[in-house]
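Lecture 7, part B: from sequences to assemblies.

Below are the input chains for today's worked example.
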Amino acid sequence: METAIQREKLEQAIGILDEHDIDCWLTFARETSETPDPALKLILGQDVTWQSAFLVTRAGRRIAIVGGPDGGSVRQLGLYETVLTYDEGIMPLLRQTIRQLDPRSIALNYSLGDVASDGLTYGMYLQLMDGLKRTPYRQRLVSAAPIVGPLRSRKTATELARMRRAIALTEEIYAQVGAFLRPGRTEREVAEHVHDEVKRRGLVTSWEWELCPMVNAGAASEAGHAGPSDLVMREGDLVHLDFGVAYEGYRADLQRMWYLRSERDPEPPEGVRQAFHACVTAIETARNVLHAGVPGWQVDAAARAHLTGAGYPEYKHALGHSVGLATHDGGPLIGPRWPRYGETPERAIEPDSVYTLELGTPTERGYIGLEDEVLVTAGGARFISSVQRELMLVG
Amino acid sequence: METAIQREKLEQAIGILDEHDIDCWLTFARETSETPDPALKLILGQDVTWQSAFLVTRAGRRIAIVGGPDGGSVRQLGLYETVLTYDEGIMPLLRQTIRQLDPRSIALNYSLGDVASDGLTYGMYLQLMDGLKRTPYRQRLVSAAPIVGPLRSRKTATELARMRRAIALTEEIYAQVGAFLRPGRTEREVAEHVHDEVKRRGLVTSWEWELCPMVNAGAASEAGHAGPSDLVMREGDLVHLDFGVAYEGYRADLQRMWYLRSERDPEPPEGVRQAFHACVTAIETARNVLHAGVPGWQVDAAARAHLTGAGYPEYKHALGHSVGLATHDGGPLIGPRWPRYGETPERAIEPDSVYTLELGTPTERGYIGLEDEVLVTAGGARFISSVQRELMLVG
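Predicted structure of the full complex, as structure tokens:
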């Protein structure tokens, strides 16, 4: 198996542990084909069957404890300098390993707001608490969100190359869509056309097949997560797609907009053009305040204020999410301080992270939704997708 | 989307709640493409993005609370009579719904031993505890393992039909393997041949592609979860495969054995034949004591005692696991009372469940491993795969 990413990520993790003054990071998982821990993609890249523990320490130790049958494949990866195996129960080996390391803090994969840092199940947590009873380590458990968040966020060179490729492939498929759109086609036909292009390239979609792409044709189509319908597009409609493909595990996530010209309205009506312009400038406003270190909510607030200030309704989601191995890659969120986002909008954006910037508004001709991707550094944010600034005209 | 299974499972769940005297079952999940709750496949069959709650009550109520963008697709399914949506936070709606139902007990998806009942993450558990503070419901939370276990175990007619088809397709591909085996081929070539047959039929493997099939050629090959290697098979070797394909989500899991005849040994040596016979009869012994209601450990113990009594080493895994939507489908385990299995071997086998019966032993010519599938009822267990009772001879 190819392990370039995992090698880079384990190196990175050791540095982040040091930054956050945490001695040890413990990923505790089992049957990860059924209940995957998102962190394992970063530091292992394969599934495990029985209870398994992956310990990374600030001092640079990398220790895996896995069931006997997984020992061979985990050793083959060469990512962990020590691979211990057991037959009957993991706890004696795990306790002994923790005792030897004697960490002042042990970070576990749980988080209220950040799904990518929340892979530990409640049943596994209870097992660990039971296994650590009558040890001092139960009192030293902390959330690994400060480790896993930055680890996912800070893209390595290998990761960035894959992400750029995923974006290029997504845009290549988007370039086919314009020629396919015409009055009389249904949303479903457009989705099928996109799926054909995905299959022809042997790719997979960035999220579940039936809902990727999402297609909205005209004002009667409700924007949201429902799948493409048999709604027929007509002259004068806006057509909106939300779509992306993955390349070697790394996802792209872009939205694009077309306008179906009619004899009466060869150009979109003034109101639609203004709304489109407001969306473009709201995203640009946000990009201008976005840089590593800024709390995500401030960036979201800038776009939100711009759009509502121009007289449009608030969009009902976050402005931007991290993208990577997952389409919603966790970590700090560029979103409003709403309860469902927990503390994620409070967190500072990490350097070398990739975010979507996305928002939209309904119009008389259909939903306008824009989404591009930016790479964030201390100096600012620059687009790594071919940002859409004009409606594409069809017909 | 096709929802036959989910409809049957929701009906079943209401009955099981009543059986176990539990008022309400709550599945609480988010971003299920990243941290899936295995129970959702049974009662929803698609992913959700924001925090979502699925409540099923003993009185037959089915209520979903999902984020706004998921509302359309969840309503389209028609599985929940009430679908509530929110924009900012789920807790007000969830608290209100629970207050109205006022259940004496609320079952959550956590379990120490049963992965299929352990989909609730620790972070989501903490959120729920926070959301239910200053209510009496925090004290009424129980594990949903007694609900989810039987729900997965008891196969409906639709599920059984799919499982039989998955077995038939697996056996169809196995039937191609014998003709391909010959001295000089590597394990990897055999795996590639099997993969070609899988792709040609547009199927997916029952577990991760790289490790399905597992192939062991001769005594130098270490049985276990490492992938097929460049090891070359020679005359007189045993060849062992562990493999299965899925049909409409339902998996098969079977092991098969071949012997490569040599001029010197046109038949396997006596020791190999005896070991093979001991494995066959150990499985048969277990099948004879297996029926709905028996605790799984008793069935495992019968096979284990038979094999060790015949002078062979103990196999280092459970004799049988439930199969279904997952290859390891959770629920009661036919396994020894080892710590890593938690309480799952203590539990009584459910009626209408499908189990593997699998064990093996090393020999001078290679690993012997056998695995077939049985359907368990109150009356006993009968094979639903074409059980292997003789070594297949090649050459």
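Note for the exam: Residues 157-394 of chain B form a domain with the Creatine Amidinohydrolase fold (CATH 3.90.230.10). Keep this in mind when comparing with the next example.
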